[in-house]
Records
---
Amino acid sequence: MQSQITRSRTSRASFTLYALCLAAILWYPDTAGADSEDAVASMFSFSGFGTLGVVHSSEDQADFSANIFQANGAGYTRQWSPDVDSRIGAQVVATVSAKLSAVLQIVSEQNFDGTYWPHVEWANIQYHFTPDFSVRLGRSILPGFLFSDTRLVGYTYPWVRPPVELYSLIPVDANDGIDILYHLQVGDLVDRIQGNFGYSNSQVPNNRGTSRGRNSWGFTNTAEYGPVTLLLSFQASHLTDTASDPFFDAFRQFGPQGIAIANQYDNDDKLIEIEDVGASYDSGRWLVVSEWSHANTHSFLGDQTAWYGSSGYRLGKFMPYLTYAEVRAIGNSNPGLNLMGLPPGAAEFGAGLNAGLNTLLEAIADQKTVSAGTRWDFAKNVDLKLQVDHTRLGAGSSGTLINVQPGFIPGGTVNLFSAAIDFVW
Amino acid sequence: MARLNRFGWCAQVGLALSLAIGPARADVVAVVSAKSLVTTLTKAQLTDIFLGKANRFPNGTPAVPIDQTEGSVARNEFYEKVAGKSAAQIKAFWSKIIFTGRGQPPKEVADSLEMKKRISENPSTIGYIEQNLVDDSVKVVLQ
């Protein structure tokens, strides 16, 4: 009953989103770049983006979702889901002077509770001490991966979505705090160094509360040389999600061995570290992108490595592409408590806890995907993308799937078909 | 069925190729003010300036690129020639900058005549016009 109410609210919300997107497309055919602006009007730049997408999954006992913070997706909740990729965003930039500017970006997409209430994606004030050195204060999205800070703007990349194997590694989202940018130009080499410090609060689906990142810091170096881009990034944070505390407190009742397991896997002020190396070659005709990342959460959220390689070739307004992506879980099982010699009641309880722990660890994604698709720039500022994905789940793993049902058989294959229209204005 | 598919595929490739070749082109050249000290620029240097990656000319003086309106023939030809990129790819590139709050694309002017006028007045500016419009108020930096 509860879920039915949620679902009907979701479909109404996604219908509203579709209506908004269509209105936006119709409303803004050609107004950008109007010439006659007065000084006040030219201080503000308005822009926006959106995606109308639909995904079909061959697996009906779990949901495919592109984002770990979404409530549902394609497969179990709906055979054809508009909620995986559809979104709309609007932005205003105020350029007060050459030195001072501010940005506010609002995005409506499927939230942790299945609603489409808009949230603030970016909100910061930027001050340029020199043309090459600036500081931003407020909310920004961490640039830890090649496409992480524009992952919501489908128009900026060739695929329907960045490969989920790598892009679902990060359990944090926006960064509220400070970041420092330095821009360096040596001949044809352009280098951008970014350092960030702050905190984050991310709402987790299924009433699992808020995932809090504290003392988050990191740096990213992006070097561009003609068509070549190379990114190196390191991000660290201290993550707390109290929803799992009662479960691990139960382990602690079993003395030193239980305490050791709880300390190893609980999610209480745990250091998470993410390293990323990405490279792309974009000649305008050929696009080759590859990225590797390792994320260790020091908790039941896992220790994983992921990489992908993708290539596309532009034929006029079409760009067909092929992608291979994989994510591997390092250690997704644990023998748990040693139950030898415990009284029968305690042993039974302990066995239940061991099974629970291994269910959590099996949910650490382990999968490989081959994707093929094409982007078609069929009209000004609008593209259409079609993509098929064939995913093989690791042995005993449910991969990146969510809402896994009792009838789900781990370790199988999943086929997806996705269609998306992206637009910017 | 197989034959039908093959026909569909051929039609699509044919369509794609004809779109890639596009209409006949006027020769667009990159220009700076006649008063500028800049003499020649490479395609890579022009690309960096127009895509906001470089804010200075190689001689260290400030560089302010100016664009013609989106969809204009001169603009599309300029970016295909210099950066090897389509209008959509350039738009995608700027969307990445805009939606991370890192900047805005160059200011736009209505046509080549207005561009020539703006450029001749300011030695920091750089733009592109049809070759047959070049006169002694501007200097060609890339043929």
---
Amino acid sequence: MPRWGMVMDTRRCIGCHSCTVSCKTENEVPLGVWRTHMRYYEKGVYPKVKRHFFPVICDHCEEPPCVEASENNGVGSFYKNDEGVTLIDYEKLKGRTKEQIQVETQAAIESCPLEAVFVNPNTGLPEKCTFCAHRLKEGLVPACAQSCLGRVRVFGDLSDPDSPPSKLLAKNASRTLMPDDDGGGSGVYYIGLESMLIDYEMMEGGKATDPQDFESGKISQSTGPAFMGWTPKTKVHRHKK
Amino acid sequence: MGISRRNFMKLGMAAGVTIALNEKLALFARAEDLGLGGGGAAVGEDKVTGTKWDKVVPYTCLVCNIEDGGIAFVKDGRIRKLEGNPKHPSTRGRLCGKGGAGIGHVYDPDRILYPLKRVGPRGSGKWKRISWDEGVSEVAAKINEVLKKGQPNEIMMKYGRDRTGGATSRFMNTLGSNTSVNHTSVCESSKKIGMEPTWGPDIESPDFANSKYIITFGANILEAAYFHNPLAQRIAEGLVDNNAKMVSFDVRLSNTAGRSDEWFPLFPGTDGLVALAMANVIMQEGLEDTEFINDWCNYSASDLKKYLTQYTPEMAEKYSGVPASDIRRIAIEFATTKPAVVFTYRGPCKHLYGSYNERSIMLLPIITGNIEKKGGYCLPRGMGWNQPEPKPQAGHEPSFLSSPPDFPLARHKVSHLVPFWIKDGKQKISVYFNYMGSEAFTFPASSVWGEVLSDEKLIPFSVTFSNQMNETTNLMDIVLPGVSYLERHDPESMPNSLFPWLGIRQPVIKPLGDSIEVREIYKMIIHKVDADGSKGMKQYWNFKDGEDMLRQHFKGIKGLDEAGGYDFLKENGVWPIYGTLDPATGRMVDKSGLEIVAEYGLHMKPDPNGKVTVKGEKRAGFGTADGKINIYAKGYEEYGFNPLPVFKAHPWHWDEKGNSKLKGDGDMVLTTFKWNIHTQSRTQNVKILLEIVNKNPAWINTVTAGKLGIGEGDLIRITSPVGYVVAKAHVTEGIHPKVIAISNTMGSKFGRYATASKDGKPGEWGSIDDPDLKNIWWKAEGVNPNPIIPVSVDPIGGSQGWYDTVVTVSKAKSGDKFGDTQVDNAKHYAFYKEAMDYAYTGKNHRKMHPEVKVGKLPEPTLKKGH
């Protein structure tokens, strides 16, 4: 069984939004909500200023907080399939009342530090990144990985040492976003975050982004809601050979 | 189908293609072959659903003008997804954000889907639906009135993004009119006029993927410019796979500058001077490629070295603000790191004397011998197609508006002075056509276009082929709506990588509503104009339909004929197919799995008819009269311009001693910019793009803002010599302290997405509503800076001085509201007069060129040929 995962090689990212757009069209996501986000960070003092581009997606964690939250607050519609993809089984929500669905959805939303879960405004149902499971089934990579101009998003079977993401992880230092992972349980790994984060206090718990930054346009472009005070503490990933 | 997981894994990750068993590497199965992929919610492990497509159709993108190859996925008659064409050597299967969102052009709920005729005063927004026959008949009748007088030049075509591949010029030639005016002078005309006399073609092909050192001057290639998508892909490869260093000179921290290893902010218009100083350093240090200069240039290395000594790094620091030590260091790094490349699209050319800036920067790859090298600064590789026979001849009489005599070198025209010339009566216009451009929004002095287009005496009758109601369409008399780029036929090519290609546009779906593609509209008009055949026009419009015309375009092209001609293009979208997309690396590979290799050194190819002999053999050379790189441009000298690259300090910014005239804290230069999500006007109702960027605040430096008491998000007034706008401030470290920058991509007052009108009244012109409208969550906060930007003209290349406008910035005055715009067109007129003073016929010309010794200058002559 493959264990699907994605490496984000942020050294290659140019913040072009090809990923956010292709995800929207592939999955017919309505306006106002996103399954993947692109964050911009500007740091430095004139004239030594840099801009970093930080793509974020559901990490498809090994121990997903959203799965636990949906189990404890509803019928456990959130689940992890045996290929490592965290999905929502809408069949389970059939027959539930609107309030019951809302409670389960809110619990899942609040449980996720990446804000990967949202309510689809057209259906009222919870929604999140599925690693384009419908594409995986046919041997296609997720839409975002297919369209990425810089080849930032490298998708494949993390349990296969010869897959492109595994090869990248073997050669490059990487980090995961989920603070409690011991380095083997996340579905998404980041290469190149050091230059973005280390100088800029994010490693030590500094604010990644102020919610006001998004509203005021301080960050020139972003998609998705501001991370509500969440600090992306990252953890060094030790790749298991 | 027999796709097993194990085979998929062995061959590597499927980047949008499925590897099928037993298939040769040259025939990768594609998602579209399988009719698979697409949207759908994951329901359960075995219940994961996806879409099986009805058809997958290759096309060429036109959200901007990079012309990427795409494939469109259709289900139930609706386009659901756009992806890059994996067979395209430039695009390599990936579309940028704009390209992926292009579906929004087709299903824009405010799109115009049937012909309209205005029923109120111009600009009142009152329209009635008319039939095609009524619209075409009225247009033909107006044309015939003009033709009866024997004055075909009174018929004007003002076009922007014309990618019909010959239909628009055929239309105008058929009518016998030479009054065709493009938009190139507000794009990169001075870059072209800087490059063309120097080495032939009007653009370079930088080999970023293989470069070790990249310098960009005012070139935001990671977001825009020619050719954003293919070149940005290759910059990522160069930077990460090839360890290239990237350095950016830019007044603002664009994404390109932000991603660069070093960003050097500099004062607007001084890029050329910095390059001249760098070239000087390179030659002083003896780091130039003397052999290349002496073999290939029409100016010797020793003469050039002497000439450049006047451009010291200290002089460059004085004007640009870039420290002399950095100029020296970067020059030496550039010259000693091979291969190296520069890129300029398109900041440096949009200034007074922008042509000189371009030629100055070209010196860098020339003197270091990086021309046509792998990883260097290469010639563009394009392809062409035939025009169907018979071909109409061009009109007899030259047109002042199209070939302005005061700008003889500006062969790409000076479109932004046209409304002033019309006001001055330089040429009478009776029928005005507008195609793929919104000049009353996107041009400098846009308010003057508004004034002229509203004036029924100056423009008695106007017609547009636009399918968007916008600031310009709103001023027309008749709308004959063309179709989106996904519903039409066009031949295509663009030198957007090192591999030349031919492509097409073809209807992915039938045109929506009652809209018709423009080449068929032209044909209808001509057939109505020449209904009885007495004018002999119909012979030039004898094609059956768009596809028939394309077959005629592509007949007789060597190689393509053998591959299957137009049918090959219909099926694959592009020809030739150089290799297959390797899903693991994103590169195009040949049958043995190695990346396809471009040809280099085109100028060195032996050619018995070559004009340049190098190393004992005649060589193909460059596209100039003598086959050499013309560092010395004799054509410039004829009109009293400097034949060598030179720096001219802008009199708006500098006094004669070189002191800045921008003395007050609030005095700065207004610049505009594009970002990766929008184009100058067409994308403002593409919903997916608009929710990413729907505001265009004015970027202002933190220290400058502090001095003016301006905080983030504050309302500010930006006052130019012709008026003011009220915008919101974005205080940032990422901009030069004497520059304020507003993106020129927002501010249209038309369209429910552009105006964030959730509850606006339903689409008025036939379009189907979009349920997503109720999900609009943003506020429309766009302001168009173009009304307060006066015209200015590079007298050589004709470029608008987009990035020269001096403004005063202050906190907004009480009573000011966001978006307030005040402008005085009489003041715009004064700037037009000043622009004429800088022309070679004007009173400023000689005093701006004391170093050029010329006798009598040629008389301005109205002749065809611009």
